[in-house]
């Protein structure tokens, strides 16, 4: 069974003080959490240590937004998987489009990071997705397929299943434009098909596929209740505890909406 995952990607926001305050708010509101959902916050490196201590008494998981693939060495300014492990980081975002766009993240480095995070037992969240231009040229599927094939080069099925996929169409990130639930579900189902071809049907059914791109409280339930979408990678809306909780509780809203309709 695939347990839904709602992950917040704070990006380069929140100093330590603000991070602590946001997580304290989340913990306070967490009594209202939907119990069947895994909740994760991917915070800036500088806040990881303080937030780890806060989260120890909660069910919320801790993630980083990037890492280097080597365990140590002469890589000025980088953070290694060992360093993340030491703090107790459970997840790491790999290959976010902003890293591909601004920091020369390549398919090759993404592949190395996936292998390394699996090696160090940090669960990777692999981000894939097309640009607006690629969608307009109707090459969004081949783009996503190639990103998967390259990212999973030389990764065995037993490791591949540990990777969470986040489908984030670049044109929907931070723009307020969301893919329609049909578009997002169609791509998620296509992603499962790629895994079926690359590995097997069982793995295609097991892999967790998130949607990311302007997810908010008001659109979460519709997106999350699609057959092939298992959760969300949330940017802007994860910076507000109240809004993030609305997304986490997408099922309650969904049930409420359905009851109102009935
Ligand atoms: O990039 C994202 C999450 O990784 C999405 O960001 P927004 O939710 O702000 O569009």
UniProtKB/TrEMBL annotation:
Its main location: cytoplasm. GO terms for molecular function: triose-phosphate isomerase activity. It is an enzyme of class 5 (isomerase). Substrate binds at residues 9-11, 174, 214, 235-236. The keyword Isomerase applies. It comes from the Bacteria. Pathway: Carbohydrate degradation; glycolysis; D-glyceraldehyde 3-phosphate from glycerone phosphate: step 1/1; Carbohydrate biosynthesis; gluconeogenesis. Keywords: Cytoplasm, Gluconeogenesis, Glycolysis, Isomerase. The active site is at 96 (electrophile), 168 (proton acceptor). Pfam families: TIM. The keyword Cytoplasm applies. It catalyses: D-glyceraldehyde 3-phosphate = dihydroxyacetone phosphate. It is found in: Cytoplasm. Its EC number is 5.3.1.1. Belongs to the triosephosphate isomerase family. NCBIfam families: tim. Involved in the gluconeogenesis. Catalyzes stereospecifically the conversion of dihydroxyacetone phosphate (DHAP) to D-glyceraldehyde-3-phosphate (G3P). Homodimer. This is Triosephosphate isomerase. It comes from Sedimentibacter acidaminivorans. The gene is tpiA.
């Amino acid at each position: 069974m695939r347990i839904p995952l709602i992950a917040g990607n704070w990006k380069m926001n929140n100093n330590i003080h603000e991070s602590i305050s946001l997580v304290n708010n989340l913990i306070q509101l967490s009594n209202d959490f939907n119990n069947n959902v895994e909740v994760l916050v991917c915070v800036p490196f500088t806040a990881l240590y303080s937030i780890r201590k806060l989260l120890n008494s909660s069910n919320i998981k801790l993630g980083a937004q990037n890492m280097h693939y080597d365990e140590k060495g002469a890589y000025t300014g980088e953070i290694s998987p060992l360093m993340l492990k030491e703090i107790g980081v459970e997840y790491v975002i790999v290959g976010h489009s902003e890293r591909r766009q601004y920091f020369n993240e390549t398919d090759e480095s993404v592949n190395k990071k996936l292998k390394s995070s699996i090696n160090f037992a940090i669960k990777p969240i692999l981000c894939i997705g097309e640009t607006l231009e690629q969608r307009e040229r109707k090459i969004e599927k081949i783009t996503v397929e190639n990103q998967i094939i390259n990212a999973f080069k030389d990764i065995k099925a037993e490791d591949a299943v540990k990777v969470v996929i986040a489908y984030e169409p670049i044109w929907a990130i931070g723009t307020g434009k969301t893919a329609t639930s049909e578009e997002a579900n169609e791509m998620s189902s296509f992603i499962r098909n790629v895994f079926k071809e690359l590995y097997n049907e069982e793995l295609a059914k097991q892999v967790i596929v998130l949607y990311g791109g302007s997810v908010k409280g008001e659109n979460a339930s519709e997106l999350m209740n699609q057959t092939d979408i298992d959760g969300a990678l949330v940017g802007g809306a994860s910076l507000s505890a109240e809004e993030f909780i609305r997304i986490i509780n997408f099922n309650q809203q969904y049930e409420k909406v359905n009851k109102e309709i009935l």
